[in-house]
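Pasting as-is:
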Amino acid sequence: MTLKNWLPLIGLTCAAFIFNTSEFIPIGLLSDIAADFAITEARAGMIISVYAFVVMLMSLPLMILVSKVELRKLMLVIASLFVLFQMLSGISTGYGMLMLSRIGVACTHAIFWSIVSPYAVRLVPEKFQPLALGMIATGTSIALICGMPLGRIIGLSIGWRMAFICIGIFAFVLLVYMAALLPKAPSRGGFSFHKLPVLLKDPLLVGLYVLSFAIATSYYTGYSYIEPFLKQVAGMHDGMITTTMVIFGCMGILGSISFSRLYARNPFRYMSIVLGGVTVCLLLLRPASYFMVAAIAVCALWGAFFTASNVVMQSEIIHMSPQDATSVSMSIFSGIFNLGIACGTYVGGSVCTHMSIADIGYVGGAMALVTFIYWRRYVMARFRKALQLLHR
């Protein structure tokens, strides 16, 4: 890896951090937003729900619409629009304006996550592609660690509007950096809706999509309610919960590093270990809650295993897709993953309502176990068969 490879890759990693931080920041500012606009916190929370649904619904159509655009140009355009919509969020004079600006940010988010991973792997020599994907995952993990707390600190200190404006300013600086250093990357041809059935007839690709949905659903069944679980079930105080969540995010970085170093040696074993790890951690969540150290350890391993599995999904989808459909394949992945987040959050909420919050790990673990079996019996078996045919 030369400096010419590293500098643009660092830019995309920072962009991953900024885009994910923008998504998480409203969570810590809902009370202030609600008070400012004289609305309920539930109504203010709609900006989070609508954001997720826009990303889910618009990833594929937007990516098909811009699939012929050269990647550097497309990245700079969506980064510019991101800056614009962030600033509009900061100067919103009413709830409607804030909602529209967040929808605009969500549309840029949908395109960004469709192209950032394919773009990253094209910036480096082939043997360093796992490292490039790991870097993008690291940007996401760092956003998980400090995105929401950072936004909350800014919001409490100088107002919730300044939290959005500060992100816009940082994004503008990053835009200038990327404009100077990102190399051109041809789009490799356009993609239209009539080609979509061909893409979705690939059994390996479809298997990966189903697996991605199942992983996200089982994971977010537990993760969406981990904060109240640690407080109510594990009996942690607020400071220790914050520490646990920071450790959780830091271990996500370790998961992305393990992917870049270990995955290529034995992909099937690696994926089996990380999926099995997610399953075991979910099932151990309740038993570990009796001991604080055990609960922290389970959460730490859980974060590492899940991040690793997520990077594997992106890597394999990129490799299994035709060259002219890589970004579109990733847009489908983004939409399916966000659907999994929504479904997992709904299932976890239903468990809290009709069973007990203490059971979210058991329910999520049962779903993760089914996911693990699906991987071993269906997806992995098909991959082995495809490799055998390739080597004949």
